[in-house]
Amino acid sequence: VILTTMVVFWVISLGASIYLSRWSMKPVIAAYEKQKNFVENASHELRTPLAILQNRLELLFQRPMATIIDESENVSQSLAEVRNMRILTSNLLNLAKRDDGIKPVYTQVTRHYFEKIFENYAMLAENAGKTFSSELQLDGNVKLDEALIKQLLTILFDNAMKYTDDDGQINIRVEKVSQNLILTTSDNGPGISDDDKKKIFDRFYRVDKARTRQTGGFGLGLSLAQQIVQSCNGKIEVHDNKPKGSQFIVKMKAV
Ligand code: ADP
């Protein structure tokens, strides 16, 4: 009887410890999977520009007597790929930095901070033949991390520029409603399907991979935007813009 009891007890405690260790390992396994996915995706994104670069450089080697002018296409395409890789690696570094949990540094800003940012956006839009408008409902000061909010707005503005056609219309509204700061960017681009709305904040997710390679996207902008918003204890949502396009709404406490 004693032996049977001991065996039963041993089997139960072994089962319990296996179950508990699996359960406690779950977050570790999930984090490992996430990290593995990230590295795989990043390597995958680097593979294409590297292959193109290798091809172009090999072509240059085959014609050692040619001048740079003769080979301007190869040289400029190689440079374009190097630029792509620089953007990708700086995005990856930014994400990794944010993963370490950078704390926002809050300072008081006035409407002048937004006006300066919008001036630049208006110029960029005009140069691209698009229209930029802004609404600023902000009396007095608001506390925010200047660099982070500028980076966030720039990601949303850049996307609106990238995904609208020649008649692109982009609007950014900033308002302080009771204790909240609300930033809304709207555009008249193609919009985002309900299915894609759930995925666009995932790292490396792009709705139309062929088109985004042309527009130079890596699918990292919105995941960085979400990390910035979360680090400021805020929320970011995507909606349909009326009558057409997308709308991103960021809500955060106006501390
Ligand atoms: P990307 O570098 O590809 O732009 P993002 O993470 O910024 O990466 O965006 C993810 C995807 O969401 C984009 O590839 C694009 O398909 C879609 N998207 C983002 N912003 C817009 C927008 N304003 N209008 C339409 N689609 C958008």
Automatic annotation (TrEMBL):
Q: Which reaction does it catalyse?
A: ATP + protein L-histidine = ADP + protein N-phospho-L-histidine
| Transmembrane spans | 1-20
The protein's predominant localisation is membrane
This entry's Enzyme Commission designation comes to 2.7.13.3
Which gene is this protein's source? kinF
Which species does this protein come from? Pseudolactococcus insecticola
Q: Which UniProt keywords apply?
A: Kinase, Membrane, Phosphoprotein, Transferase, Transmembrane, Transmembrane helix, Two-component regulatory system
Stretches assigned to the Histidine kinase domain: 41-255
**Which cellular component terms (GO) are annotated to the entry?**
plasma membrane
- Official protein name in the record: histidine kinase
The reply on keyword Manganese is no
Q: Name one GO molecular function term.
A: phosphoprotein phosphatase activity
Q: Which domain of life is it from?
A: Bacteria
Q: Which GO terms describe its biological process?
A: cellular response to phosphate starvation
Which principal EC class is assigned to this enzyme? Answer: transferase
Compartment annotation: Membrane
